[in-house]
Amino acid sequence: MDADHELVGRCLKQDKASQTQLYNRFSPKMFGICLRYANNSMEAEDLLQIAFVRVFAKLHMYRFEGSLEGWIRSIIITTAINYYKQQLKFQVEVDLGDAAMHATNIENALSILSAVELLKVINGLPIGYRTVFNLYVIEGYNHQEIGIMLNISESTSKSQLHRAKAFLRKRLNDMGITGTDYGKNG
User: Fold this and answer.
1) pTM exceeds 0.85
2) Are residues 101 and 78 in the same domain?
């Protein structure tokens, strides 16, 4: 039996030390995820606590068919999405003129900005843009999956991502990081 199997087994037996061990092992990385969705660190901490309550409540459902970290991560993301779905009504915004706009090469911006600076820029996005941006660019979901998770259309997801990139492009330009510094596609 591997270490994760044993740890989960002890947690399911309500062993407080094991629950603390599981939390301490995964909470720093999961807090980083919460920070990407939250408006500030206090809200991210609240979100992390809510999500870990769900992790422990659903731990009996973990089937060891993937990494424990990945399973916890999916609960963290789902919790963040549900939290913000309660606070935000996404507007259906489709502007066909936006389709012609060039996409930003975010990866090169990462090499110029520190992680803290980049997180501040991303957290400056309006909540709908930020949620779609995080899910698509950072978490790797496609627009169809995002639409289902957020109860929006696929085209709204694409529009929100496009607007997020345009917003980030403007913010980076305002910071003195021009398009030539972080590259452009198209």
Assistant:
1) no
2) no
